[in-house]
Amino acid sequence: MVVATDLDFVKDVLVRDFNSFHGRGFYSNEKDDPISAHLFSLDGPKWRSLRMKLTPTFTSGKMKYMFPSIVEVSERFNQTLGEILNEDSDLDVKEMLTRFTTDVIGTCAFGLECNSLKDPNSDFRKYGRMVFDTSGIKSVKRTIMQLPKLAALLRLAPFNKEMNNFFLGIVRQTIEHREKNNIRRNDFMDLLIDLKNNDTLDDQKKIKLEKLTLEQVTAQAFVFFIAGFETSSTTMMFALYELALHLDIQEKLRYEINAVYTKHGGRLTYEAIKEMVYLEQVINESLRKYPPAVALRRTAQEDYKVANTKLVIEKGTTVVIPAYEIHHDERYYPNPEKFDPDRFLQEVWKTRHPMSFLSFGEGPRNCIGMRFGRMQSRVGLAMLLKHYRFEISEKTPIPIEFSRVTPVLGPTGGMYLKVMKI
């Protein structure tokens, strides 16, 4: 295994020599476990073809279409939170935020009201928990999956039959219902249905790309779901944690949110959210201090000679890029443990190495849903900070102890904060 610590080398791997490192080396089993064959885990031509088909799904124009759905869920979130606060002000914000993002993704990726805000044990929340469950046999399975050849020999299924049936069933029903009744909602599911029914064109090579099968549509909807709810809820959770520790920053941000709301007639519009510049800085600083993926990995597709050295990385070797360590390196972020949103003022950001911020990866294999994730986090935080004040309570973990078993960076227990209605 090669650990990349030099940022120019990181740029070579992720961007400049991407063709030598386009694979992630994760295991998937399309035959026995269709939902495991999604964009994140596929490599080679399958990945490239799928990425090209899906990239238009995440343009800013498409985000604008989905924006009202997210705002609608955030309003329900506000209402639910208000009801809960009548009983208790000391809340596990991680669980609340996960229910919010689950409902957002359920609406945008499946066109369904998941209702996990009202019912924490809704099906979507249940299967969402299952994906990130690390107990017993699942941790053994995960370990074997680190050895893709062995996993393939054992025909290991990353996700069980029950989960496959649930997601395949929901996608099949949704597609049938929309096609029969000619319904369009301008969400992910509409775009996936278009890819299922129509050929697409590879812009570079001007060749036709095959239509997506029902299984492929389901796998992509599934990965939007798991990647979208966990990472965004974690990002918002860490932001609220830091804002509870730094009430001056929280007040400054609330002032900006209220000013923008007032300017736009008390409504949260797509244009309004773009004007919340300090909110974006707070989110970026949270992502710097707590990157959801603590490391990125790529696999050498051929023998690769490292620039300006005699070193050759052999084909098949895994290259690990330690994002968390880079984000906490004093050379790029002086006093790295300090929470300082001003690190992300445009003029300050420009002076740093482009590979010093890796929360969404970088290069052709960066996070395809970055725009959506950012939008969802902005809407959630704007709504929360307009209506609630967050402070630390006796149960707040200070300092945070990180879980060693979850795939996404998170605390060992919940994240309890004192929440007060404004």
From TrEMBL:
Signal peptide start-end: none
Keyword annotations: Endoplasmic reticulum, Heme, Iron, Membrane, Metal-binding, Microsome, Monooxygenase, Oxidoreductase
Binding site for heme: C367
Protein family according to the UniProt entry: Belongs to the cytochrome P450 family.
Subcellular location: Endoplasmic reticulum membrane; Microsome membrane
Organism of derivation: Hermetia illucens (Black soldier fly)
Record-linked PROSITE patterns: CYTOCHROME_P450
Alphabetized GO MF terms: heme binding; iron ion binding; monooxygenase activity; oxidoreductase activity, acting on paired donors, with incorporation or reduction of molecular oxygen
Cofactor annotation: heme
Protein name listed in UniProt: Cytochrome P450
InterPro entries: Cyt_P450, Cyt_P450_CS, Cyt_P450_E_grp-I, Cyt_P450_sf, Insect_CytP450_Detox
Membrane topology (UniProt): Peripheral membrane protein
